[in-house]
Amino acid sequence: MTAKIIDGKVLSKKVMKSLEPRIASLKEKGIIPGLSVIIVGEDPASLSYVTSKGKACERLGIGSETIMLKEDTPQKDLLAIIENLNTNTRVHGILVQLPLPSQIDENTVLEAINSEKDVDGFSPVNMGRLISGQDCFAPATPSGVMEMLARSKINPEGKHAVIIGRSNIVGKPMAALLMQKKKGANATVTLCHSRTKNIPDITKQADILISAIGKPNFVTADMVKPGAVVIDIGINRVDDDTREKGYCIVGDVDFEAVKEVASAITPVPGGVGRMTIAMLMKSTVQAAENTL
Fold first, then answer.
1. What is the pLDDT of residues 123-143, one digit of tens each?
2. Are the folds of 28-115 and 140-272 the same?
3. Is the predicted pLDDT of residue 57 greater than 90, yes or no?
4. pLDDT score, position 44
């Protein structure tokens, strides 16, 4: 058995296409969805991600602004910028690229973003709404996974979903989305992390296995139940002298081996990462629609 490939390139294009009439309708009403992204420092991975967001906005006709700040920017300066964006009616979405330098407290910054403009879904208000099952902006990557499952006709209801990784950005909100009491969710969720004992024994029970720990090829074929759906959120740079850049990008899953065991699997690159951008665009459009 060779797994079906859940193609993030194809699915993300479908999401982006579905946003076009919504954006056109907003523009007819004089509203251009606007996204402001703040990046502090020059982390290459963050810069690459921010560039991708800008290109996606341009393709869709969404207003896009990237605010580049120096690595040593004081926290008070960042908070002042966020406050200005909170009151700017042309800005519907605000995103502060994480991680932040050590002199800036991440929680303070996330709390400062207006929850109605928190399109990344990381503020305590939106996290609380997510846990309690209310409408909210959910983090883009877990939302992208849910969209991939739905568009691939993979229903989590009644299934055992195992997540490896408990970050606030992916693991925890992923668990919350999967256990929601609504259509397209209703899974039984187990969340594994660095203190979990006998992780392979748990992953082999998963109908849906999701990895988000940032360890190259951590998930091997013997950790996967035959026929399971495997979602690889990891993006890892591995040295490779055969490549012009000197490295290659791989996921948390040993793709070549696991695809022979799983029923469906996401590749890296070309999987969840593409959906993350698409879902951010979707949240920005929703934020603009919420102002009507």
1. 999 999 999 999 999 999 999
2. yes
3. yes
4. 81
In sequence order, what DSSP letters do the residues of 251-276 get, joined into one string?
-SB-HHHHTTT-SEE--SSSSHHHHH
pLDDT averaged over every residue in the chain: 96
Domain boundaries, the chain: 28-115, 140-272
Annotated catalytic residue: which of 13, 14, 17, 53?
A: 53
CATH number for the domain running over 140-272? 3.40.50.720
The answer to whether residues 174 and 237 touch, using CB atoms and an 8 Å cutoff, is no
The pLDDT value recorded for residue 135 is 94
Distances (CA, A) of 260 to 3, 72, 217, 228: 6, 48, 15, 11
Half-sphere exposure in the Cβ direction for 29 (13 Å, CA): 12
Which residues, listed in sequence order, are joined to residue 63 by a DSSP beta bridge?
34
**Residue 252 annotated as catalytic:** no
Choose the catalytic residue: 117, 118, 120, 252. 120
What is the architecture of the domain spanning 28-115?
Answer: 3-Layer(aba) Sandwich (3.40)
pLDDT reported for residue 245 = 83
Whole-model pTM: value is 0.95
Active site annotation includes 207: no
Which of 97, 172, 207, 252 does the annotation list as catalytic?
Answer: 97
In the residue annotation, 53 being an active-site residue is answered as yes
